[in-house]
Write a structure and sequence with these properties.
The complex is a heterotrimer of chains A (329), B (288) and C (272).
Chain A: E1 3-12, E2 15-25, E3 30-34, H1 41-49, E4 56-61, E5 64-65, E6 76-79, H2 91-100, H3 110-123, H4 139-151, E7 157-161, H5 169-186, E8 189-194, H6 197-203, E9 206-211, E10 214-219, H7 221-226, H8 231-236, E11 241-246, E12 249-253, E13 258-261, E14 269-278, E15 282-288, E16 296-301, E17 315-320
Parallel strand pairs in A: 3-8, 3-9, 6-7, 7-8
Antiparallel strand pairs in A: 1-2, 1-4, 4-5, 9-10, 11-12, 13-17, 14-15, 14-17, 15-16
Chain B: H1 3-13, H2 18-47, H3 51-60, H4 62-95, E1 97-98, H5 101-109, H6 116-127, H7 134-139, H8 148-159, H9 161-174, H10 177-184, H11 189-218, H12 221-227, H13 237-246, H14 250-287
Chain C: E1 3-4, H1 12-38, H2 43-50, H3 53-86, H4 92-98, H5 101-104, H6 107-118, H7 123-130, H8 139-149, H9 151-164, H10 167-175, H11 180-209, H12 212-218, H13 228-237, H14 241-270
Classes of the chains: A alpha+beta (329), B mainly alpha (288), C mainly alpha (272).
Chain lengths: 329, 288, 272
């Protein structure tokens, strides 16, 4: 089911959370809303779900305007950042909740509910936890139960608010790969909110970069990375260096977009080595250029020619090789 | 606060100055023994001074029984009403933002800072023979003051805040996400409240009800003003204790008092139990 | 009007409406009647009622005994809270549970029990009499009864705050070279003071209005051991409704001013 967001604005008292947002999400797509905290991404997600009412604008699901629809009738699966599992219910009862709340004539029998719940718990590989309470689960397990609970009512759309935000680094990486695979299998139109650009790039089909209540750019991960529409997007999607060219001109480039040499080469600038950090496959070198306050960080493969015997305080020659060259930037 | 963290704190404190620690603990025991335990024992010893027989005569006397009945009636009306009020007040205060919210919370707490005697007085001013509605009430042959309705009203007044006060912080801490999740999963308002909110606030609710019951049962000043002290008719148990005491029938007074004391101890046990469940709930929420 | 009403959590109108109606009918309108009744008196008459020597004596007695009782609890209560939070010892749980006894015990029962103990013939009263100290039927007895009924307030407000102060904070202060008393003065006191003031204010407000536990031990001698709530009762028994109302309003207004002052003090402490 496709989602259209049309001219949506939202204020909280004096704070402008969303300003005239327009967004089309195709059926079956997995889209990330990416941005810093306070950019309005969670508000947008909650408006799509029907948890907040926009001040202006419409939400359209598959051609039908659902703006006036009650949250129950939108058929949306929602996974909260802190999961919002019902703490007094077992895992089984949590997942069964949506089915049990159906009106009498649509409600399946307890037997059918039990089958359905176990099927979902198997899908998230946690069937063995059915009788536990949420407080007895790890963060990653709660996350998957929350997902199973949301999927139990067979939603047409799945919305996830910072789905991996509360997990530790290792579990987060496992789960996001798992979510991407799950999406491959069930192909449900899904939108998730994140502030982690790596997460958005790894999981999403398309990324919506937001800042201060507006959309900065919409595009595939490669597109927003390689062809950022603004300085904000460029900075937000990865580490960046700024090299001043004089006359208020500067260029931006990423740490790996650099050529290093021990000897003087054409167009290369002289810099002093301030720090050398081996980070595994790559090594990061911090450089100081005369007359520029901002330090430059360069990342090269660990066996790069320029590194042999290099110590702090020595001089290096470097040249930015930005993939995007854009006059003012 | 869980007992686990309490103990952890307590253990780490063992390294403190041992003399000061011993003195303070001894002080706590002294306060407990002299101030809390001794009055308890005095009530019991005075009650059974003339043996078990006199004790039972005093508490089984018809006036005592009718006082007990009236006390239970007042509790049975005041507590459920304040329970519904408490849930309603806590709901609108904790689930929504609106102007004047902090004023509302202050007003809910107001009966706590009004003397019980004034609580009784205001109903006399409204419904007494010379009160604002006095003439109208006597024309229609309705008696509120110096009758059971007045006692119930005064009891309600002094116990209004108890349930709300327990629920407001608890519900504010729990937030609205579980309710939102329930609605997204298709629950209607009533299903959401019954299946999600109520189980979550259950222990806070019980705790508030226990405190409310204790106060409703033991209220003296407010009830004293509106009661009229008619033996066997408008006397609650605490008022009955006063009458017996003022008649120098000390053994009977202490016998009835020991009945109230037993109820108070039961309430303390219930309170302890619901509080323990509540703190377990809170510590689980903290871990999330 | 600033509002943040979730479209999915129903019941705002219903619960707010019910809360306001219930509160108005049972609390606000009746309290309004109190102030309405005082308009039966002219200002001069009002002043005459409340400046009667008997009223002023009761006013002084009620507020001073409530103040001292709250102060005593401020000390004992803080120490009790400290002991209960920081130490494990035999009987800790039972003491912790019994702290609430004064809330659970009907005040009349507390009143006759304390009187039986502290009256000149009582267990403690007779010991005190031997050294020439009279407790029951004096302001001292009233203070004692008020200390009993308001005991839980300071303990129960200070206890959770004390439990929330991580032990590390004190240890960090100690590592920085602070002596135990300096730690108490600069680390614990500022953290506890707002809660302590709340407990103190609650105990004080309750003490001023308390009736049941006091009238047995007070002796109720006009000008000497007659508290304000009792004076209201006396006026009511004489069918002097306006007199009772005037004293009631006086009590409410003075309590309100004092609580406001404590509240302001608290805010000043919390926002340095």
């Amino acid at each position: 089911m496709s989602i259209e967001v049309r001219n949506v604005s939202k204020h909280f008292n004096a704070f402008r959370a969303l300003n005239n947002i327009n967004l089309d999400i195709n059926s079956g797509e997995l889209v990330a809303l990416l941005g810093p905290s306070g950019c309005g991404k969670t508000t947008l997600l909650r408006i799509i779900a029907g948890l907040e009412t926009p001040d202006a604008g419409n939400i359209v699901f598959h051609g039908e305007d659902v703006s006036g629809h009650d949250v129950r009738d939108r058929n949306v699966g929602f996974v909260f950042q802190h999961y919002a599992l019902f703490r007094h219910m077992t895992v089984f009862d949590n997942v069964a909740f949506g089915l049990r709340m159906k009106p009498k004539k649509e409600r399946p029998s307890e037997k059918v509910i039990a089958e359905k719940v176990h099927e979902l718990l198997n899908m998230v590989q946690l069937d063995w936890l059915a009788d536990r309470y949420p407080e007895q689960l790890s963060g990653g397990q709660r996350q998957r139960i929350a997902l199973a609970r949301a999927l139990a009512v067979q939603p047409k759309i799945l919305l996830l608010d910072e789905p991996f935000g509360a997990l530790d680094a290792k579990v987060r990486k496992e789960l996001r790969r798992w979510l991407a695979r799950l999406h491959e299998e069930i192909h449900l139109t899904s939108v998730f909110v994140t502030h982690d650009q790596e997460e958005a790039m790894e999981v999403a089909d398309r990324i919506v970069v937001m800042n201060k209540g507006v959309i900065e750019q919409i595009g595939a991960p490669g597109e927003v990375y390689e062809q950022p529409a603004s300085d904000f997007v460029y900075h937000f999607l990865g580490d960046s260096n700024r090299l001043h060219l004089g006359d208020d001109q500067h260029i931006l480039f990423r740490p790996h977009e650099v050529s290093l040499s021990r000897s003087e080469l054409d167009d290369h600038r002289l810099a002093e080595v301030r720090d050398i950090r081996p980070l595994g496959a790559i090594t990061r070198i911090t450089l100081k250029i005369k007359d520029q306050d901002e330090l430059i960080e360069a990342e090269v493969v660990k066996d790069h020619d320029s590194l042999s015997g290099l110590v702090r305080g020595e001089s290096l020659f470097f040249k930015p090789r930005p993939s995007v060259v854009n006059g003012q930037r | 606060m869980t007992s686990a963290t309490l103990t952890a704190n307590a253990n780490s404190a063992r390294r403190g100055n041992p003399l000061a620690r011993r003195l303070l603990i001894a002080g706590a025991w002294l306060v407990f023994a002299l101030f809390l335990l001794l009055p308890l024992l005095v009530v019991l010893s005075e009650a059974f001074k003339q043996g078990v027989g006199t004790f039972f005569t005093a508490i089984l006397e018809p006036d005592a029984i009718s006082a007990l009945k009236l006390t239970l009636t007042a509790v049975a009306i005041a507590v459920p009403l304040n329970l519904v009020f408490g849930v309603s007040a806590a709901w609108c205060v904790s689930k929504y933002e609106f102007t004047g919210k902090s004023l509302l919370v202050t007003l809910i707490d107001l009966p706590f800072s009004v003397s019980p005697v004034i609580a009784g007085l205001i109903y006399v001013l409204l419904f007494g023979a010379q009160g604002y509605f006095g003439q109208w009430l006597s024309d229609h042959d309705i008696q509120i003051v110096f009758a059971i309705p007045g006692i119930v009203l005064a009891t309600i007044f002094v116990t209004v805040p108890f349930v709300a006060r327990e629920l407001i912080p608890l519900m504010q801490e729990q937030g609205t996400q579980e309710e939102e999740a329930a609605r997204l999963l298709g629950a209607n308002g009533w299903q959401m409240f019954w299946h999600v909110t109520l189980p979550n606030i259950k222990w806070g609710l019980i705790y508030g009800v226990v405190l409310c019951t204790a106060r409703a049962m033991g209220e003296f000043g407010a009830v004293s003003v509106v009661s009229g002290h008619i033996r066997g008719l408008t006397n609650t148990l605490p008022l009955h204790v006063e009458i017996l005491y003022n008649e120098y029938n000390h053994v009977a007074a202490f016998s009835v008092a020991s009945l109230l004391l037993a109820l108070a101890l039961i309430i303390l046990l219930l309170k302890q139990w619901s509080e323990a469940r509540l703190s377990r709930l809170k510590s689980n929420a903290d871990e999330e | 009007m600033s509002r943040r009403i979730s479209p999915v959590i129903p019941g705002f109108g219903l619960t707010l409406g019910y809360t306001l109606v219930y509160l108005s009918l049972l609390v606000l309108i009746p309290l309004g009647a109190l102030f309405l009744k005082t308009t039966d008196l002219t200002w001069a008459q009002f002043i005459q009622v409340i400046s009667a020597p008997r009223v002023l004596a009761a006013l002084k007695l009620s507020f001073s005994t409530a103040f001292f009782a709250a102060l005593i609890n401020g000390v004992i209560g803080t120490l009790l809270a400290w002991v209960l939070v920081r130490y494990t010892f035999p009987g800790r749980k039972i003491i912790d549970a019994m702290i609430d006894l004064p809330f659970a015990l009907p005040t009349a029962v507390a009143g006759i029990a304390l009187t039986a103990l502290y009256a000149p013939k009582g267990l403690i009263g007779s010991l005190a009499a031997d050294i020439g100290l009279k407790i029951a039927y004096t302001p001292l007895g009233i203070t004692l009864a008020l200390t009993f009924v308001t005991l839980p307030f300071v303990v129960r407000t200070v206890q959770p705050v004390l439990a929330d102060i991580p032990r590390e904070v004190e240890e960090a202060a100690a590592c920085l070279g602070a002596k135990p008393l300096q730690v108490a003065r600069h680390v614990l006191l500022p953290a506890l003071l707002p809660a302590w003031l709340t407990g103190f204010a609650l105990a004080f407000a309750r003490g001023v209005g308390e009736y049941g536990s006091v009238i047995f031990i007070a002796g109720n001698m006009p000008m000497k051991t007659e508290i304000l709530p009792l004076l209201i009762m006396v006026k009511l028994d004489q069918y002097d409704y306006t007199g009772a109302t005037a004293i009631g309003v006086l009590m409410l207004v003075v309590s309100f001013i004092l609580l406001l002052a404590i509240n302001l003090l608290q805010r000043r402490i919390e926002t340095p």
